[in-house]
Specification:
By secondary structure, this protein is α/β, with parallel strands linked by helices. It has a single domain, classed as CNF1/YfiH-like putative cysteine hydrolases (4-Layer Sandwich), CATH 3.60.140. It contains six helices and 16 strands. The strands form four sheets. Strands 5-7-10-9-11-15 form a six-stranded mixed β-sheet. The chain has a five-stranded mixed β-sheet with strand order 1-2-16-8-3, with no helix packed on it. A hairpin with a 5-residue loop joins β9 and β10. It is globular, with a radius of gyration of 17 Å.
Length: 248
């Protein structure tokens, strides 16, 4: 299969030179509708040979194969390199070793990349509303063992604040954890609320002392030409957010 050149987003953040990161989009690749085109998820009904071709195309831009996770909307943070062949059940991963690629896949949930200002540790976290509520970002920051002010965070493409409709029970659960979370829910139709995943993530990161937060301007639901969106399409592909350290 001939893989059309993928389109990447390169995080615009003041990370140390040793820190490298990529965000994939749906553009490029070989997958056919409804997974067109650069689908990296092997669990969404796409042809296995298409996923394999897309992943091989991605790996040409990386120092090693990504350490794929089996994401379950939980709070487990995996230290890499890890034992076994993977994928490992976790919703975040971090490493202090060069040429080990942390990765999370999303199609509306919020991907969060983290690094320290010295370029000694990097992490990728999968933060949908369930993971955010349960504390995936707090767990990830804690696992890095670096004070919050020494960390940088980058928020990748996710469903935007004007498109993410949730029930009253979701708002209630967040507000019960932190009353200030109410700022990130706006009344919608039929008793529903519009939730701001990025705002909730910024709030949680700030509570951990992380104030240097970048990205977050992309809405997966509104930009069908560039991003996969599970809410919009139901059956669709997955994008990857990847981060690693170059060898010193």
């Amino acid at each position: 299969m001939h893989c059309r050149a993928p389109e990447f987003i390169l995080p615009d953040w003041p990370a140390p030179a040793r820190v490298r990161a990529l965000q994939t989009t749906r553009r490029g690749g070989v997958s056919l509708p409804p997974h067109d085109g650069f689908n990296l998820g092997g669990h969404v009904g796409d042809q296995p040979e298409a996923v394999a071709a897309n992943r091989a195309c991605l790996e040409a831009h990386l120092p090693a194969s990504p350490c794929w996770l089996e994401q379950v909307h939980g709070t487990r943070v995996l230290a890499l390199p890890a034992a076994g062949a993977g994928p490992w059940e976790a919703d975040a991963a971090f490493t202090r070793q060069g040429r080990v690629v942390c990765a999370v896949m999303t199609a509306d949930c919020l991907p969060v990349l983290l690094c320290d200002r010295q370029g000694t540790v990097v992490a990728a976290a999968h933060a949908g509303w369930r993971g955010l509520l349960a504390g995936i970002l707090e767990q990830t920051v804690g696992a890095l063992g670096v004070p919050g002010p020494q960390l940088l965070a980058w928020l990748g493409p996710a469903i935007g604040a004007g498109a993410f409709e949730v029930g009253e029970e979701v708002r209630t659960a967040f507000v019960a954890r932190d009353a200030a979370a109410a700022l990130h829910f706006q009344p919608g139709k039929g008793g529903k609320y519009l939730a701001d995943l990025g705002g909730l993530a910024r709030q949680r990161l700030a509570a951990c002392g992380v104030s240097a937060i970048y990205g977050g301007q992309w809405c997966t639901w509104r930009d069908a030409g560039r991003f996969f969106s599970y809410r919009r399409e139901g059956q669709t592909g997955r994008m990857a957010s990847l981060i690693w350290l170059e060898d010193v």
